[in-house]
Amino acid sequence: MATTLFKYTKGMHRVDTSYCPGCTHGVAHRLIAETLEEMGMLGDTIGVAPIGCAVQAHKFLNVDMCEAAHGRAPAVASGIRRVHPDKLVFTYQGDGDLASIGTAEIVHAAMRGEKITTFFINNCIYGMTGGQMAPTTLIGQKSTTSQDGRTKEQAGSPIHVSELLATLDGAVYIERVSLATPGDIRKAKKAVRRAFEVQQKGLGFSLVEFLSTCPTNWGVTPPDAMKWLQENMLPQFPLGVLRSPEEVK
Predict the structure, then answer these.
(1) pTM of the model
(2) Phi-psi region at 71: left, alpha or beta (left = phi > 0; alpha = psi -120 to 50)
(3) What SS3 class is residue 14?
(4) What is the dihedral of CA 37, 34, 128, 98, to 10 degrees?
(5) 110 in helix, strand or coil?
(6) pLDDT at 2
(7) b or e along 92-107 (b: 16 or more beta carbons within 10 Å of the residue's beta carbon)?
């Protein structure tokens, strides 16, 4: 039986991870890096990472990276892409960053149809800053700022970013994927490729939302985090394409 040996992608630096055990940020990094390598675009890509766990992306991804203030990555990326229209430009953002302090930036970048790609890591909680309730935190989910569980009466319902952005004319491709299983990960990589191709064709704004884990702030083991994602996040955030280039046409 033939065996396939593991191959380290040139799209990532050979450094030890600084993410918590069971965190799926590293999986998302790998998918982005592999895709860019396969597209031959490692030397022609610029990434923008803001505050939060996402800020560490520059340590791992072997492409030009720029840091942005909390929530401001879409604004920075918009400027970079307009100055460098021949480059692939992406933002890499968590849910606290993108769906809270950066809501205006992501909404207006999508509304304008900026030719950038956003990778949105949704793990339903603030990560680096202490496990606070995020805009995507589920009803009943506990956090450091909702210790009895989030309630609709006090904090409203979880925001559905992909559904919101899919209503905007400038958004060309929006898809929600999961990083919970090998099959999910294969589908997620296809979404990454399609999002970059939309940008290459100059069609408009594209976003891939990754349903991800945060075992540390969820207070569960890495294996249980995968189960928690599938049992609790999937019913609230169903997978699939919410906006496609074909639909826009």
Answers:
(1) 0.95
(2) left
(3) coil
(4) 80
(5) helix
(6) 60
(7) bbbbbbbbbbbbebbb
Partners of 178 in the β-ladder: 211
Q: Cα(104)–Cα(139) distance, rounded to whole angstroms? A: 24
CA dist 221 and 209 (Å) reads: 23
DSSP state of 55: G
CATH number of 25-248: 3.40.50.970
Residue 183 neighbours by CB distance under 10 Å:
9
Q: What is the pLDDT along the chain (249 residues), one digit of tens a residue?
A: 566 667 889 999 999 999 999 999 999 999 999 999 999 999 999 999 998 898 999 999 999 999 999 999 999 999 999 999 999 999 999 999 999 999 999 999 999 999 999 999 999 999 888 889 999 999 999 999 999 999 999 999 999 999 999 999 999 999 999 999 999 999 999 999 999 999 999 999 999 999 999 999 999 999 999 999 999 999 999 999 999 998 776
Contact indicator for 108, 76 with CB cutoff of 8 Å: no
Q: Rounding to the nearest 10 degrees, give the CA dihedral for residues 130, 11, 6, 194.
A: 90
Residue ranges of the domains in the chain? 25-248
Edge-to-edge strand list for the sheet holding 45-49: 64-67, 45-49, 88-94, 117-122, 205-211, 171-178, 240-243
In the structure encoding, which two tokens stand for residue 245, read together?
A: 């280039």
